[in-house]
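User: Hey, my collaborator sent me this sequence without any context and asked if I could get a structure. I don't really work with proteins. Can you help?
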Amino acid sequence: MREIAKKSNIATGTIYNYFPTKDELMISLIRFYWKDYGDKMDAAFSSEEDFLVKMHRIFEIIDTFIRTFEGFIPEYAKKGNEKPEGRVQKFLNEFRKGIKNALDMDKTISIVPSIKTEELSAFIAANMISIALYRLYTYENFEKIVRIIILK
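Assistant: No problem. I've predicted the 3D structure and written it out in structure-token form, which is a compact way to encode the shape of the chain:
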């Protein structure tokens, strides 16, 4: 906190006035940056690009956010008035809805008949986040599987 105050040319007490703890400061920063990343995701979702191009852009946005805050995200999920599960579930619901809308918008896609759009949206969302978090699989290989499912 002292270093931030020094570099900002303000008194340490001023920072503590707005952010009583380092956790509060980090939560505020994560929320601020998440808003920016959310705006980028909204722009990507509403673009006229091909579905796969759009999904790759969105993956890069999520991946960058996770890389930037990977040490802090678990702590952020635990802080605040809302339960961690609520924050995560809210994000996942919006994310899946965005993917479903993107699938519906792209008229060049023909999903394998045995798979519902909602199921595919959940599959894509879960795998994008998993790849960004754990790096157990590459996005490129994941995209190959999605291409087969959407018959592209």
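In plain terms: Residues 22-149 form a domain with the Tetracycline Repressor; domain 2 fold (CATH 1.10.357.10). You can pass these tokens on to your collaborator as they are.
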